[in-house]
Amino acid sequence: MADSKNTLTIENLSYSYQNGERTQKILDNVNAKFEAGKIYAIVGESGSGKTTFLSLISALDKLQEGDVKFNTKSLRKITGQEYRLKYVNIVFQSYNLIKYMTAAENVEVASDFDGRKADPNKYLEKVGITAEEGKRLIGKLSGGQQQRVAIARALASNSPIIMADEPTGNLDEDTEEKIIEIFRDLAHKDKKIVIIVTHSRRVANKADKVLTLRRGKLS
Amino acid sequence: MFRNMLKRSWLSIKRKLGRTIILTLIFFMMANLVLAAFIIKSAVSAQMDYAKSTLGGTVSIQADMDAIRENQKTEMEQGGDPSEMFKSMSRPSVKVETANQIVTTYTDYIKDYSYEISVSANSYNLETVETKGFGDKGSRMGGMPGMQSMFGGMGTTDDSSDSSLDSDITIYGVNAYAYIDGVDDETVTIKDGTYFDEDSTGSVMISYEFSELNSLKVGDIFKIKNIYTEKSVSLTVIGIYDTSSERANANTMYMNTETAAKFFDTDEYNDGNYSVGDVKFYMINSDNAEEFVEKVNAEFTELAEDNLKFAVDTSEYDSLSSSIESVGGFADTILIIVIIAAIIIITLIVTINVKDRRYEIGVLMSLGASKKNVISQIATELLVIGTFGFALASVTGTVFASSLGNSILESQVTSSNQQSERNFGRPGAMMGGMPGGFSGGSSRGSKSSDIPDMPDGDTLNMKDIIGGGRNGQKIELDINAEPIDYLLLFVTGYLVIVFALILPSISIMRYQPKEILSGKE
User: Fold this and answer.
1) Res B151: pLDDT
2) Burial class (CB in 10 A: 0-12, 13-18, 19+), B318
3) What CA–CA distance (Å, rounded) separates B31 from A191?
4) By the 8 A CB rule, do B235 and B224 touch?
5) Integer Cα distance of A94 and A147 in angstroms
């Protein structure tokens, strides 16, 4: 699935909230192109619409105006569920792991969604989680380990696009460094499109391209 | 995707043990009640079928007293002498050939039949047992339950007007031993030898006291004679009976109708068309009794001409069926209440559970799981837990059903007993006044030529219900789970799960992953 020619194209994306009687425009005719093999950082002030932008391009939210295309496949022509299943995997700041499962089971569940039988330890190992740690329930792992499990789950899903919303927000500097390296490897070695929404300057500095979201515009 | 869903379901069941145990207990309790209701319904249905076949009702031929009195009235109006008329009055009787013809013509209706012949006899050189009270020596009918009374009865050839003659012995001829009153409830038992049947012509069963008094044993032959016709007959002792009935006369001898008929005068016997009494036809199905009567009346018009009529008695079946049906009705009520309660309880639990797992559902949807897939996971969890609960209930349900069914039945028995007390304290009055009642046991289910089965204590019959159980035995419904009951349990259980999933599924269908995950954040 990961191909160096893969692209994610954002065309005239606009989004607004209804705030009482007032309509608040969050995204205003945003256009962007994300290429495989690169890591993109999207930065901006709080409330600038970074998470909304990520929700729209990951199909967690419905498009209002504009389009999102993976290569030539339009998000308007397929369901959000199919898009998430086939093309994109999201790493959240709060990890979003299933608590009654072990680390390995969380990874396995993601890999199983597209019908593949993958060895979860292979992906856990990539993010520095041992097989022994993989047998532990999520609650028994540290925040850094949980975030790495979340990334391993994204890897296991075999999606060509990895999106992350503040993936290092809860982590210390050392762990943040390691996590950024993993994302860089995902982009550079595995030829995935990696888009990270972040406040962290260190994370932004490691990205191949930094895009700033300000007043609904991406530049 | 399917395998993944199964894996998630299994992990959820395994890791969320508290929830799994609570749901299992709920399914287990529900399944016990549902299975109990189905088993009781099956038992009731089987019991009703059994009651229909064993308590199919009886149709007996009786004297039409209204017609007789109407004739007497007409005669008196025409100047007849009332004292002479009443002196010579005798009840009309049924000829054995007519009775036999009815039996052979209506085999689709009749499962069995019985006739009786009673004869008063004297012995040549045998001593008779002195009895006190009802069954005094010399009493014409000997006080035997079921014997003809008052007028000498239909089918007897006794000249009852000749009161100067005293009989020592009462001859009682009936199809087979099983038809003797007292055999069913074991107040009459075989002490030595064996029973007689339609093929045992020339054989006789005598009482223990009579045999002891005269040193008679099985195989001995003796001779007695009809006190009126002086016809003597040699009889071979085939069996010796004992009776615990206070009303029994130890000078009563039992034999088949063919043997008893030998006491008639030679011409009448040789003619083969002698009269028989207490003619009863046991119906295969009580529902067809009226139809049978209509047909027989149409074909055998001579019966009405002879002032005879048919009396249908399905009271035993009717009383039994109403008691059993009310148990079945109770089972229906339980079933409906349990199913509704189970749907409501499980819906509430699953709804709360789905709300509790909102975050997990959001995560799964962000990974690409469809809402259908998420609902399937929750359904699978419920089906697995439910199957476990139902399987557990399959083990305990029969015991529970037995206890529940019989406690309901017991309340019906109490109610019936109270009803029977209103019948002048005679339980038998509810069964057409038959002393000792009519057992729904197996002896009536066999053709008269069959070996009569002794009543078994496990069978529910009217006497058990009203009288509180044969020989003090506990009354019990024959409750056994059949494969169909288990099938119905599982089908009902799964349907309950499906219904209980409707509301939670609607709620899942409205979930948006972004709202869930942003809410979490």
Assistant:
1) 33
2) middle
3) 56
4) yes
5) 8
Region of A158 on the Ramachandran plot (φ > 0 left; ψ -120 to 50 alpha; else beta): left
Spatial contact of A207 and A40, defined as CB atoms under 8 Å apart: yes
Q: Which residues of A touch B510 (CB under 8 A)?
A: none
CB A86 within 8 A of CB A114: yes
Domain A7-218, CATH 3.40.50.280 — does that match? no
Determine the average pLDDT of the residues in B239-254: 88
Shared domain for B121 and B248, answered yes or no, is: yes
Q: Is the pTM of this model over 0.80?
A: no
Is any Cβ of chain A less than 8 angstroms from the Cβ of B415? no
Shared-domain flag, residues B187 and B216: yes
Domain extent, residue B394, equals 15-54+320-398+478-520
Residue B511, chain A, CB below 8 Å: the answer is no
Alpha carbon distance B71, B61 (integer Å): 19
Q: What is the pLDDT of residues B3-15, one digit of tens each?
A: 778 888 899 999 9
Does residue A81 contact residue B368 with C-beta atoms inside 8 Å? yes
Smallest Cα distance from A104 to chain B, Å: 12
Measured distance CA(B379)–CA(B166) in Å, rounded:
87
What's B25's DSSP letter?
H
Beta bridge partners of B116: B174, B277
Q: Using the Cα atoms of residue B243, residue B246, residue B251 and residue B257 in order, give the sign of their dihedral.
A: negative
